[in-house]
Amino acid sequence: MLQIRRDLVDSIVAHARKDHPDEACGVIAGPEGTDRPERFIPMLNAARSSTFYEFDSLDLLKLYREMDARDEVPVVIYHSHTATEAYPSRTDIKLAQEPDAHYVLVSTRNPETAEFRSYRIVDGVVTEEDVEIVESYMFANTGSDDKPDS
Ligand SMILES: [Zn+2]
Known about the structure:
With 150 residues, the chain is an alpha/beta fold. It has a single domain (2-132), classed as Cytidine Deaminase, domain 2. The protein is 22% helix and 33% strand. The protein is built from 3 helices and 8 strands, in the order E-H-E-E-H-E-H-E-E-E-E. The strands form 2 sheets. Strands 3-2-4-5-6-7 form a 6-stranded mixed beta sheet. The chain has a two-stranded parallel sheet with strand order 1-8. It is globular and about 35 Å long. The model has no long low-confidence stretch (mean pLDDT 93). It binds zinc ion (ZN). Zinc ion binds next to strand 4.
């Protein structure tokens, strides 16, 4: 299951709408071991395509270095589909390299409502998961003695 704050969901949808008809993509980083998306990082779709997305390789390298330095991991990796449903394409599945990430798909094909769905993609196998949208991470553990939420 993906638990995510409403303002982050809104940020993803807003980014997807802004880049429509091109696909939008980005990452939400979170502290290692927490599975808690916290830091919204919109990325550039280097392919500037309405059917494909690709992180710029230098941007991505920079982002991974930054996350490393902050003890963060890519908790959510999101992108949008602009004319089709919010389900990973064959290419998306082939390129998915983070078995611990939540792959979020947003579809902007309907201008009124946005589809927002989340998947695990491990070894080419796609599993949809529930999304729980919360106002805040109320029970977030912060002490060093706490165990990560699961
Ligand atoms: Zn896709």
